[in-house]
Write a structure and sequence with these properties.
By secondary structure, this protein is α/β, with parallel strands linked by helices. The protein has helices at about 20-30, 60-65, 75-90, 100-110, 125-130, 160-170, 195-205, 220-230, 235-245, 270-285, 295-310, 310-330, 350, 360-375, 385, 415-430; strands at about 45, 90-95, 115-120, 135-140, 180, 210-215, 250-255, 265-270, 345-350, 375, 380, 400-405, 435-440, 450-455. The structure holds ligand F0G.
Length: about 450
């Protein structure tokens, strides 16, 4: 059998087509070699992101029809709240339109100007919201995470020495809170172990530091704990999730990933003060505290999706489909981040295009080349995403310069994975002929979304 067997059958299809070579060439140039600026109509297989791109189940669609659109006290909100309480174990829930709405409220509340937020590894919007509140986000992930070849099964773990150094340097009062991303997106979808979370809790209790999770891909992290950590082999995913969350004060959550929906988010907490404050603020920025920017039907879909997304058989298929694509590339000699992560395959662009200097944006270049070859849309996750140093204004060139092939949940078949792999392998064979890019337009905030590039000649 090629690839994992899908634990579902398909009830509705959406037609997609491969644009001609001429159209692909034109489209990527019109988009300034930035895959974010392509029209989705020009895309055959869209691996830009796993965010909001899920196919919902019949059960979720049925829930959509039952959505209660009351402005206040919607029944759908209470189903949403109950699902979060049941699956994650938090008592208090504040809905937001998506993850960054929750980051705005949570990080804005907990960060004072001049404070530091240590996090295993930054995520773009998370870092931006801490900075908006006047803080600085600093990575304290283990060194292994920066090495794509390192096979540590828990490459998302925090390094306590690095955390201690920050506390010694700035003093505990300057640390706003400790932020932990569960399944670290920017390092390749790498999990955090339960042991690391448990030890972090003990560590932070000593200094009375709050722990806030970015729980966006926590169900996938829980799957890896079950697969790789001794003692959890037979533990239900929900029990693993509840134990994970018990080590935090609260979390932010982009429901557009593990909750298997197209829109939504929330923050949740065990802490009454955080709840009271953020519940007060949500009405200013998002909507009333019983909808927070979501329609009733969307909350209903999240409630059902959070439960479905925590089912073991679903997660097993999900993780193995990503692994299938990664293994096809590895077999052909393409360097990818190892171990293969949960939500995508990350190609090491520095190894793929070693002839390009960093300021010719190897990952951006490769992402554009893949589109031009096969109309598969991927995303740069390297120096363009990282941005500039806040103090010096210089470009930061992180160790990881990656192209992310992010797999939407329950959307593409294993044959789509094979088509994608074939395109990348074809490019790999003629990689010497790929030329770099020059950035010709650079927006101030989150530049990767709208930056434009021109192709350099040989
Ligand atoms: N935290 C993490 C770890 C994320 O991956 C994202 C979004 C967010 C927060 C923000 O959530 O988009 O709902 O506002 N990640 C998407 C991605 C955009 O493509 O990785 P949002």
């Amino acid at each position: 059998m090629n690839g994992p067997v899908e634990p579902f059958k398909i009830k509705m299809v959406e037609h997609v087509k491969i644009p001609s070579e001429k159209r692909r060439k034109e489209a990527i140039r019109n988009a300034g070699f930035n895959t974010f600026l392509l029209y989705s109509d020009d895309v055959f297989i869209d691996l830009l992101t796993d965010s909001g791109t899920t196919a919902m189940s019949d059960n979720q669609w049925a829930g959509m029809m039952l959505g209660d659109e009351a402005y206040a006290g919607s029944k759908s909100f209470y189903n949403f709240e109950k699902a979060i309480q049941d699956v994650l174990g938090y008592k208090y829930v504040v809905p937001t339109h998506q993850g960054r709405g929750a980051e705005h409220l949570m990080y804005g509340h907990l960060t004072n100007p001049g404070q530091i937020v240590p996090r295993n590894m930054y995520f773009t919007t998370s870092k931006a919201h801490v900075e908006l509140a006047g803080g600085t986000m600093l990575d304290v992930i283990i060194d292994d995470a920066h090495d794509p070849e390192n096979e540590n099964p828990f490459k998302g773990n925090l390094d306590f020495k690095k955390l201690q150094n920050l506390i010694d340097k700035y003093g505990p009062e300057k640390i706003a809170f400790v932020n932990v991303e569960l399944n670290v997106n920017m390092s390749g979808g790498q999990p955090v172990s339960m042991k690391n979370l448990r030890e972090l809790k003990e560590f932070c209790d000593k200094y009375k530091l709050k722990i806030i999770f970015d729980a966006t891909r926590s169900s996938e992290n829980a799957y890896f704990i079950r697969e790789r950590e001794k003692g959890y082999e037979n533990t239900p995913i929900i029990d693993i999730l509840r134990e994970m969350m018990s080590y935090s004060d609260g979390c932010i959550y982009s429901a557009k990933k593990d909750c298997l929906v197209n829109m939504g988010g929330f923050l949740a907490t065990h802490n009454k003060d955080i709840f009271e404050y953020t519940r007060g603020m949500v009405v200013l920025f998002e909507g009333l505290h019983t909808y927070g920017g979501m329609a009733g039907r969307d909350m209903e879909a999240v409630a059902r999706g959070l439960r479905e997304g925590a089912e073991y058989e679903y997660l097993k298929y999900r993780i193995n489909q990503v692994r299938y694509l990664g293994e096809l590339l590895m077999k052909a000699g393409v360097s990818i981040v190892k171990p293969i992560g949960s939500h995508g395959v990350f190609i090491d662009a520095l190894k793929f295009l070693p002839h390009l200097p960093r300021d010719q944006w190897p990952a951006q270049t490769l992402s554009a080349a893949i589109y031009e070859d096969s109309a598969v849309r991927t995303m740069e996750r390297g120096a363009v995403s990282k941005g500039r140093d806040k103090e010096t204004g210089e470009n930061i060139f992180p160790k990881l310069e990656l192209v992310r092939l992010t797999i939407p949940r329950r959307v593409y078949t294993n044959t789509h994975m094979e088509y994608t792999a074939e395109s990348i392998i074809r490019l790999y064979k003629k990689r010497d002929s790929i030329t770099g890019l020059k950035m010709v337009f650079e927006p101030k905030h989150l530049r990767f979304f709208q930056a434009r590039f021109e192709q350099l000649s040989l």
